[in-house]
Write a structure and sequence with these properties.
By secondary structure, the protein is mainly α. It has one domain. It is 51% helix and 0% strand. It is built from 4 helices and no strands. 13% of the residues are buried.
């Protein structure tokens, strides 16, 4: 399974696995369908939303690893 990095966009992560949407939502990132979700990195989006990007990355990568 692919590894998620902060430089990826939300749209790229959703293409890898649509079920990651629940993780983004849990972290308060409800902008999954907005234009910014495919134009800014996860790190940039996390900064805008006041979210710890490292914790989000950990959650996303742990989720993907659990599916292997």
């Amino acid at each position: 399974m692919a590894s998620i990095s902060k430089s990826m966009t939300i749209a790229e992560v959703l293409q890898i696995d649509r079920e990651t949407a629940a993780i983004f939502m849990r972290f308060g990132m409800h902008c999954l369908g907005c234009p910014a979700s495919s134009g800014e990195s996860i790190e940039q989006a996390a900064m805008v939303h006041g979210i710890d990007a490292d914790k989000l990355m950990d959650a996303l990568n742990e989720f993907l690893a659990s599916k292997e």
